[in-house]
Inverse folding.
């Protein structure tokens, strides 16, 4: 399938000299949800801004739906909706007219029904005649989402959509994102919150320091990079790890009731079978065992610290 | 052409005017009335006539130009500066719009507003003096050309300015003096020879002279030169705006 967004050798140096993006290559497939994960200043907003036409690239190319963002900007920008990171809104316009404005900017004929539906979907219908200045932060966020969707985009960029958003709105937002995905919209979102990427994305890209460290299917990523932890709970506390178990990288909990074994799912042999046998022959009696997988957060922290 | 975009920008800008009706329409009208009282009646009664036109009538074209220039510049510069300031410019930059369309929307609205103000001032002037316009077509042509050109100029200032001070700087330090010294309230013939020579370096003089010619058939310079100079200034402004968008000057990093 032709990627909906294709980024090739993209670099950006700001006039200050700061190299914000370093040779980014990324293909985004139609209909997927891609989460871009990275610490402050990683270059997420810069990347999005280039694709949307707000910042010009220093080198490299980007195509959207097969069209170059520079030479064929009319086509590409019609397809894109953007919810910016900052709450940038006018002051005195009304909620409904600012949505109509955005729709018009993108070359679409006025459509009262579509705007009405959007306002209702975003729980803004009661506020349709309020001026933007009078809205709360969360409502402004909704208005920005409404503006981005006003022209029925096929690619939606959400730059940290959940910053300053309460649990309720976040849930609403994920419902909306899922509905959009079902209707075939490709969604690219940035976030600092790993749980968010874990919860909603199909693929995760990790950016640090202007470099795209990896892009992986979310599940594969967690499988591939995730180390697992096996916790063995003992019936009787022990004071030290028995000699016969010294070959395994085990840690004993302070109360002496838990043996913790770290292993890597990537490895051919995890060593679990022999460990269990050794525990058995050491005469320890088990109460329970359980495993836990490291979260994206751990993976992320590992990658970023590895790099620096 | 993205006509929908041009139309929404234009309408939004006109709406902004409506929201600040008092400030945008009433204030130029009031200041014009004050000029009439001070210059037309108080001082004008001591001045017989200028080039066979009574002084109160003579200053009308200059007064209209004074408001037109300052209003065009301040409207257009603020119109584009404000989205830059609040950050909402991101929407314009990420929309499928060419520079020409952006200019058409913003400058079109600013020029329309100036045109309305110019008309209102002329009507107001009609209450104070008997106005006869010799060449209505040329009068209108000068009016429209001036509105467009100086709105374009204001647009350039709005993009160039990165703070409110810069936004006010050019209108205050350059335009107002040029208008006052450009023969708004006098004919350059009334100046000593040296100042006459200096005045001819003032581009606004040509503008006011041409506009005044369309009223009374008298001007400091031939009307053709007036027309050419405003067209030249228009061309320069268009070239600058084109260059700004091409290079993304102060808009796209
Ligand atoms: N206009 C600019 N001029 C110069 N440097 C800039 C500009 N905008 C961003 N940068 C720099 O580029 C780098 C990347 O910034 P960017 O906003 O893309 O990061 P980000 O990943 O979105 O961060 P955050 O999570 O804080 O939003 C930062 O070091 C930032 O200081
Ligand atoms: Mg950012």
């Amino acid at each position: 399938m032709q990627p909906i967004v294709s980024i090739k050798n993209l670099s950006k140096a700001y006039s200050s000299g700061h190299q914000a993006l370093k040779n980014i290559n990324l293909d985004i497939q139609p209909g997927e949800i891609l989460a871009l994960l990275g610490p402050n200043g990683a270059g997420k907003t810069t990347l999005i801004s280039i694709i949307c036409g707000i910042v010009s690239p220093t080198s490299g190319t980007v195509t959207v739906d097969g069209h170059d963002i520079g030479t064929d900007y009319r086509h590409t920008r019609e397809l894109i909706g953007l919810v910016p990171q900052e709450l940038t809104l006018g002051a005195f316009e009304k909620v409904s007219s600012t949505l109509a404005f955005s729709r018009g900017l993108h070359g679409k004929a006025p459509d009262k029904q579509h705007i009405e539906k959007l306002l209702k979907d975003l729980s803004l219908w009661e506020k349709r005649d309020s001026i933007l200045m009078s809205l709360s932060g969360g409502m402004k966020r909704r208005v920005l989402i409404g503006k981005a969707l006003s022209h029925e985009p096929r690619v939606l960029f959400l730059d940290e959509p959940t910053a300053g958003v309460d649990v309720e709105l976040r849930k609403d937002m994920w419902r909306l994102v899922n509905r959009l995905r079902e209707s075939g919209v490709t969604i690219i979102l940035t976030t600092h919150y790993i749980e968010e990427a874990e919860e909603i994305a199909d693929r995760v890209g990790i950016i640090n320091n202007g470099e795209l460290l990896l892009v992986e299917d979310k599940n594969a990523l967690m499988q591939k990079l995730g180390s697992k932890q096996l916790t063995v709970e003992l019936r009787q506390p022990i004071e030290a790890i028995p000699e016969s178990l010294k070959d395994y990288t085990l840690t004993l909990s302070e109360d002496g009731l838990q043996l913790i074994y770290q292993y890597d799912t990537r490895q051919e042999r995890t060593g679990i079978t022999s460990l269990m046998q050794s525990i058995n022959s050491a005469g320890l009696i088990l109460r329970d065992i359980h495993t836990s997988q490291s979260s994206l957060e751990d993976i992320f922290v590992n990658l970023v610290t590895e790099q620096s | 052409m993205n006509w929908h975009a041009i139309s929404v920008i234009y309408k939004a800008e006109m709406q902004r005017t409506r929201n600040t009706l008092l400030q945008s329409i009433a204030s130029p009208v009031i200041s014009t009335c004050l000029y009439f009282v001070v210059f037309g009646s108080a001082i004008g009664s001591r001045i017989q006539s200028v080039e066979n036109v009574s002084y109160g009538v003579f200053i009308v074209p200059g007064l209209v130009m004074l408001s037109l220039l300052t209003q065009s510049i301040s409207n257009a510069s603020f119109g584009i500066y404000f989205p830059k300031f609040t950050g909402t410019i991101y929407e314009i930059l990420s929309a499928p719009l060419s520079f020409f369309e952006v200019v058409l929307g913003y400058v079109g609205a600013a020029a329309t507003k100036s045109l309305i103000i110019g008309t209102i001032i002329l009507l107001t002037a009609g209450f104070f003096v008997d106005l006869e316009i010799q060449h209505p077509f040329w009068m209108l042509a000068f009016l429209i050309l001036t509105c467009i050109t100086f709105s374009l100029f204001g647009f350039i200032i709005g993009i160039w300015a990165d703070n409110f001070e810069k936004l006010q700087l050019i209108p205050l330090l350059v335009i107002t003096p040029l208008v006052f010294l450009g023969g708004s309230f006098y004919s350059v013939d009334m100046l000593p020879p040296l100042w006459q020579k200096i005045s001819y370096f003032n581009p606004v003089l040509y503008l006011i002279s041409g506009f005044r010619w369309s009223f009374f058939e008298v001007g400091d310079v031939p009307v053709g030169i007036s027309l050419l100079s405003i067209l030249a200034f228009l061309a320069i402004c268009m070239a600058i705006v084109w260059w700004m968008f091409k290079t993304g000057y102060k808009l796209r990093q």
Remarks:
- The mean pLDDT of chain B is 86.
- Residues A 14, 16, 18, 20, 38, 40-46, 85; B 253 surround adenosine-5'-triphosphate (ligand 1) (CB under 6 Å).
- Chain B is about 75% helix and 0% strand.
